[in-house]
Design a protein that fits this description.
single chain, about 40 residues, mainly alpha, rod-shaped
């Protein structure tokens, strides 16, 4: 039972960390490259 709980906590931390990283990239890095991305899409 403890191992199941540990695995659940590990999974939660991993997902949360990825989500935080993605949010930061979208908020900080994406606007920086918005013009280049727009041109690539044309």
């Amino acid at each position: 039972m403890q191992e199941v709980a540990r695995e659940a906590v590990r999974d939660y931390i991993e997902r949360t960390s990825r989500r935080d990283l993605l949010d930061r990239v979208l908020d900080e890095d994406l606007p920086r490259y918005a013009e280049a991305l727009k041109r690539l899409g044309e």
